[in-house]
Amino acid sequence: MSDEPRGASSDPEADPTHPEAYVLNMGPQHPSMHGVLRLKLHMIGEEIVVAEPVIGYAHRAHEKMAENRNYLMFLPNSSRIDYLSGMIYNIGYCQAVEKLLEIEVPERAQYIRVIACELNRIASHLLWIGTYVLDIGGVTPFLYCWDDREQILDLLDAITGSRLTYSYGRFGGVTMDVDDAFLTGTRTFLERMKSRLPEYDTLVRKNVIFIERSRGVGIMDRQTCRAYGVTGPCLRAAGVAYDVRKSEPYGIYDRFDFAVPTESAGDCLARYDVRIREIEESLKIVTQAVRDLPAGPIMPDKPKKKFKPAEGASYFAVEAARGAFGMYLVSDGSEVPFKLKLRTPSFSNLSSMPKVLAGTMVADTIAIVGSLDIVLPEIDR
Amino acid sequence: MSPPETLVDKLDSPWLGVVLGVAAVLGMLTVNVLFLVWLERKVSAWIQRRMGPTEVGPFGLFQTLADMLKLLSKQLITPRHVDKPLYHLAPLVVFVPVVAAASLFPFSAGLVLQDLDIGLVLVFAFGGLAFVGIFMAGWGSNNKYALLGAMRSVAQNISYEIPLILASLSVVLMSGTMNLAKITALQSERGYWFIVLQPVAAVIYFIAALAETNRAPFDIPEAESELVAGFHTEYSGMRFALFFFAEYSNVFIVSMVATVLFLGGWSGPLLPGPVWFFLKVYALVGLTMWVRWTFPRLRFDQLMSFCWVVLTPLAILNLLITAFVARLV
Q1: What is the ipTM of this complex?
Q2: Is residue B31 a part of any domain in this protein?
């Protein structure tokens, strides 16, 4: 290697259509790439001409693993697909298998599942608020969010034994019943969280710098969202009221009174507002579920010993914290799935980035990628 | 009124005075920077409802001392492909002007190392010199993040120096001198601080000073979520520590300038001069910390337009009004 510094013109990775641009490799090791995302940015000065997301650094072959073990053995994998809303993925996988096997779930277990999933959703959104504000340079809200999220992790830890990668669901119910301590703790948390949201409003939402950094930044309109299959809060921020819990209700979500918050702008600010309001809606759902929680068993009377679905296929989707998480399960009649295809929301959401990022500045790139709430292990699977 | 006897004048040999003076300034800066870093960690912890350092010494006071020792003992890593002269010189070019600037301040009546009539100009001149070092670091590192950081830094500092100096000039117009000790003495004589007559200039100065010291919400040159560590990305060990030291010293220096210009320097009742001086400086430092741990970061273009569209015209207007009123009175 020569000691001469390499100039932009001799850059081997330069884009031929933009010979004057230089390449900035952002990631996979970078403070704000949310794991191991690599962005290849072709830039002129501070402006980005072409942005290429490069993925695959956290690929663990979950789909292939599913083909090599029986249905139950894949259960611990499910929450490791998206470790930030692992409960929703875990329960979602159970529900997908239950649909294939036609297993009835007892009432109490259904309610417990809703409580656990919604608490997990709040935790995931809290983490997003923290990291998003951190991405645009505000450190303090991050620790406030972490503090609140910790309360949820403690609650879920008490009933599941894990903090992030839960294996709480079983085909037909859940592993452990909730006790009074958990219910009291949940009620306390609900009260606490309601009083904390106005604080976030004062600290973050009303801050003029925060508004200036988010408004009109990274606009994803309806057409873009439709073209790339964007779901979740990003889609709702563009004004489409699509939420799997409402559009194709699963479990017992049709029994609860909650709204699907939407915004019209489709920018980073709208995505923030949607997530804050989703926290409020989730709080409502948990409040109702805790109030209506019936007594009874948490597993079917005669749990199955072997899970051997008939030949066939089924598609089942749940609303994860980042959007629609779909599972296409194909059974060949054996104990092992023939094929499990995972449709993960962040993958589609991230795929819109080359279009959205072109023409922005570096600082906006960080804000926009942050506003998507991507989880790399879920993209790479 | 004869000029007050300064510390250097009291010594027999001028060279001994210089050596002792530099040692005194370095010592003063080191102690203050160590304390400042500790204070920053405690203030941020308090704002974020954490504990902050608690282990080393009472209230974790010696934590930064331990950190400094660690940085001193670390291996100096020089990456391949760096522009060696620039890369090695940069930390010094950033560090030395800071020490030089710190020697110009009157801590109390007569307690001043270099009592110069162009004190204020020199402080700003030394402040401007440091950015050459920052650009050397960014350019010499052969790292795109460092280069981007240096580029932002230079653009930012050239812009913000203008409202900073214009705001200070309003005070100079009122006092008729650029001698820091005389400006302080004048406020002491008249019995009021210049912030009373120049509140707009004080606010402009404070905002521009935040940008000048690369502090949040203007910490764009080293925005960690964007540029990793900006211009000092490729520096480790003591070289990094020199940048760090210069950065915190700069916070201290702009607070000292603000204290002298707007808050009456060492003047105050009952307590001795140095106590008043450092009380005021630390009140300002506390304010910058409060701001840092509350606000997110501006974007580069927003930062520039804020300077050129809002701050600079406002500072010019304020200067014109001051000049007009000074002429009438």
Answers
A1: 0.78
A2: no
